[in-house]
Specification:
about 260 residues, 3 domains, 6 helices, disordered N terminus
């Protein structure tokens, strides 16, 4: 006979949901406790947890140190011995080359900001403009860096949702700027330039020109949206709906800046 206290009289099912059922030779169902996790599985889980915790920290430190070492190895040999503090001390100064590079770039920016610097820069650009292949490379790189420098406060400061690649399928996008020039002039609607990143590498993607009304602006930051893209949707930022703040789309001429 079966033990009645182990069964739920209402459903005729085991009262313990973690228990497993087995049948003996008489066809009577017996209850056996669920197996516990073995030590090997525990050690595996601990190992994976350690990898998840340490890998981002280790990779960040490694990349930072590699960048500092690369700049130091490039800049330090150019420093005259009498101006190099390592000549007078028996110590190495990591990051000295990076510091010197930052100072030199700042001085270069200050130099080109005055009349003499602008004149010299204009003369150099006219020389480069006469070189068939070099001028195309220079113009493209200059336009990219000028765009990043002048619009750093507004570029990639908004994350949004658009229906892409077809209606009914939604993709994360980054609003870059109000569309201008010939692209906007030849369109009958107000367009916005957006960047649709790919997964898991958000540095590649697609440039789209969409009607402003088709973009749904998200509350999450660009960094949170990038994490969502990189993790293929597994790292979802926390969000609480505020009834006082309804879902909104961009208004005419608006590209929000955070």
């Amino acid at each position: 006979m079966t033990d009645q206290k182990d069964f739920d009289p209402a459903a005729d099912q085991p009262a313990n949901p973690d228990a497993e059922q087995e049948a003996d030779n008489d066809g009577v169902q017996l209850l056996t406790p669920a197996p516990k996790r073995g030590i090997a599985k525990r050690l595996r889980d601990y190992f994976l947890t350690g990898v998840v915790v340490s890998a981002p920290i280790g990779i960040t430190i490694y990349l930072t140190w590699a960048l500092i070492s690369f700049v130091d190895e490039t800049i330090k040999p150019l420093i005259p011995a009498r101006y190099n503090p390592e000549t007078y001390f028996s110590l190495s100064f990591p990051g000295l080359g990076l510091l010197i590079m930052l100072v030199l770039l700042t001085l270069l920016g200050a130099l080109t900001a005055n009349f003499f610097g602008r004149t010299l820069l204009g003369y150099g650009e006219r020389v480069v403009a006469r070189m068939p292949v070099v001028r195309n490379i220079y113009k493209a790189l200059k336009q990219i860096f000028e765009t990043v420098a002048t619009q750093s406060a507004g570029s990639f400061r908004q994350a949004g949702l658009i229906e892409y690649p077809r209606q009914g399928i939604w993709s994360i996008c980054f609003v870059t700027a109000n569309t201008n020039g010939e692209v906007q002039a030849r369109s009958e609607v107000d367009l916005v330039s957006v960047f649709v990143p790919t997964t898991p590498n958000p540095t590649s993607g697609f440039l789209l020109f969409l009607p402003r009304r088709d973009i749904v602006i998200l509350d999450m930051t660009v960094e949170e949206a990038a994490k969502l893209v990189i993790s293929a949707g597994m790292v979802v930022p926390e969000w609480q709906h505020n009834p006082q703040k309804p879902f909104r789309k961009l208004r005419s001429g608006e590209v929000e800046r955070s």
